[in-house]
Design a protein that fits this description.
Layout lengths: L35 H4 L12 H9 L7 H14 L9 H15 L6 H11 L4 E2 L4 H4 L1 H13 L6 H15 L12 E2 L2 H10 L2 H8 L7 H14 L4 H9 L2 H6 L10 H16 L2 H8 L2 H17 L3 H20 L10 H10 L19 H17 L5 H7 L2 H6 L16 H18 L4 H6 L2 H12 L23 H15 L4 H9 L2 H14 L7 H18 L3 H19 L12 H15 L4 H9 L2 H11 L5 H11 L5 H7 L8 H16 L19 H6 L11 H8 L2 H11 L9 H11 L1 H19 L6 H69 L1 H18 L36 H4 L6 E2 L4 E2 L8
Antiparallel strand pairs: 1-2, 3-4
Length: about 950
Amino acid sequence: MATETQFAPRVSSQNPTQTLTTSKPRIPIVSHTITDDDLGILQGAKLQPMNLTRVAKLMTDPHSSMLYDRHIHALRKLPKHYKQGFLMKDLVLVVKILNVCADRLEEQPMYTEPMCSILDICRLPFLKEKTSDETSYERIAIESVSQLGYLMRVPSNDIRKKICAALISFYCETPPPQVVQKHKANSLSYNQRIVESSDLSETLVKSLALLENDLDVRLEVLKVLQQFSKRSAKNCDQMLCADAASRLCCRLMDPDPSGELLFRSVDVLWNLLEYGQKENAIEQINDMTCISQLRDAFIQQLTQGYSHYDRQLRNDLLIIASLIAQVCPQAPFVETGFVRQLTLFATFQEVKSHSALVRHLKLMTSHEDFELKKLLINILTVLSKDPCVVPLLSEGRLLLALFSYVRPNENTSLPRDWTPAQFEELQLCAMASLATLVPFMVEDYMMCQGSTRLLLLMEWCTGEKGKFNGYGNAFHGAGGRGNKRAQMRHCLRLMRSAVSTGREVVLQDLVDQGAISEINTILRGYTENDSSTEDAIDVEMQCDMLYILSTLCDGDMHRKELFSHEGVDIVCKYLKTNPVKLSSGLGHHKLVLATVDCIWCAIVGCYVTEDYFLEKEGVFLLIDLLEVCPTNMHNLILGCLLDLTENPKAIPHINAWRGKDDMSAAHLFCDIWRSEEREMGVQRDQQGAIADTSLPLTGQLQANQGVIPLPASCPSQAIVDVSENMRAKLYALFCKIGFMHLPGLTVEDYVTLAIIEKYMDFKLGEVWSEVITELDAEGIRPVTPDQEAIETISRAIVDRADSVVGTQKDMLLSQQHQSLMEEQEHYAEIRENHRQKEKAINDFADFVARTSNYSLLKAARERQELSVDASRVQNRYQDAETFHELDLANLNTTAFSGRQIMIDSTPVELTGGPLAKYDSKKGTLKSRTFQMA
């Protein structure tokens, strides 16, 4: 705070620009600045900095470099002046003094005490005079912190420990209040940013090589690394640049009575894997030495650790090993014997072993032991990716141990057994692992009678409800609280994994055990229940069951017969799924695809099931689905329809189908063909006809890639195109249903149908064009007969395309003529309507004239009689003596007389009808009233 009083000469208000005249004496400006220091209100200690330049010169000057007593005296004064921390502007000199002391320490141990005192001050944040000092001296602060790490070269344990303590305080601890006059301490976040920007972490890791025989200092360095690696990706990456993971892991089992070395090393490794580049860290650990150290540390903690801390550390070691196995499947777990021992520890409870390692080992129901069991199952599942591991797992009878959990759950347990909740979680974890392991260990699966166990568990899952309610814990138990859905879900996943191997022995075993009928029964229950309550898990289980049925019945007539009418009824109900559900996000699109696949594998090919499927209008349902489903489902449905048309009874169903707006199946197929060609970028004109006769089928991608010479064993673009789109299936379908007399086709459809009919010819021409182009690209000239054949083929290709184009033009021209004729007929109808209206007007005018003029009526009567006489064939009979007149005499009407006559009277709307004059109250007619105009 300061107050200032100023006295200045007064300028005339009339002429502000007028300068002061020399006649008046100039009054000097007197400024009085009163500071907080003058008033005595400054808070905090007053910093009295030393002249560090003189101290540095005293220690480095050749004339005074040997004055050790003066050096020590000056160094001891330095901490007294900087009790609250060093100024940022003095950091360069402080570091210089420390380096001079460090260089002389080996010859003069007397520098140890002053260095320790100075390092004690380094634990405090740096002091700044201005806020801008943080930016101005940031580079200096980073270099200064880095120099502290370089001081680890000093061969003094006391100094090394002081450095570690100072770094921990500087980086982690919130400093005590530093109230210094005219100075302010840096924040903790600024200190952390300075450390992350320096190379301090890398230097400390490298210093571990100097401390291999000094356990105490090594532990202190590990403490610092432990703090630096917490939630700091920059520090972790710097440490990994110095091979921190390898340096720490290869010395895990160094002698340490306290056990602190293993704990802190594992903690740093964990931080490196979590916050650093995991792949880089694991790559450093991926060697024989590190894996052996991990193995020994894990076995020691498992067999000799009994405390809660030992169990947690044991689990952490196993998680690190799991991460290594996941990222590096080829890590030397087999070579080090780690896999064999892990298999032993994972199975010793379920499979008896005489190994000395597990003779006195017991796993309790504590949380740590429970997690260990799950981790052991998990790491063995991850390691099974390596083919060399599978024989060791089979030798250790891992599948037998895991299948011991594939059994019905119980609500109670013995005191030393897993609790029901723990058993359920282990059961689900075991089945998830079995789903991965069974394809690699089919023989073990059969030896364990896996199919029988799975079907028994499935029967229990669908049995009486209420006896067991799941807990739904952990990841695998999702959706299983209060029910058995989690067990059912993983049981089906395991069965799906088993049948996906395609091994006949597995498939036959499941069929012999009655899997088809049991799954049909379960699916029938789903179709009979309300589908609005289904969630993603229910849909997933139904998909798995349909996939299992497809795999079991594929290619075997007897199994398709076992699928029977019951299975056909089920898939027909699934085909009636509301199309709106396909985009619900619950997976109904997968369910529809699984249904079509089940039809293809379990129904098509067996006349018994095919006929019943046709009887249940299955073809209609398939085409209904084809009409509304997304484009990416068309290929599968068309393939199923194509195989179904091998049965001649299916073709009338296809021709009889009608969709929205009375659309026929042939029209739908043509529409799909056009959409497929639009997506491919095939050149067509506005009417859908061929635009380029040289490339009638080629899409944009194929045209851009061009023709590349390939070996004979590699398919060319024209051949690959057959399987990459649906045009070949559509062509085959039309070959089945025919190209003529198809109902419901438009002219555009006929234009498209002309291309479809010649698809095979165009495709052959496309292949020949590729052959010719490849020969030209390779510079090969065929012999003269072959050259003539090639020229003939080339002309035939163009002629065939021109013929189709001509046919398409004729169709379009006929359609244009037909449109013109229909237009003329429409206009003729309009003209006839106008003529009839004019005739009606004239007839009415003539009628009015006859009724209003008697002479006109007589003339009309005469004309009518003449017209009647003229219409007769002969009129001689009128001259006979007995001729009787047919007309009434003196009848002045032009209408032919008869017993009844229709008279156009005044409309009822005007008269009010016969009761208009009736008075309902009196029962008499109302009197007539006249209104004067």
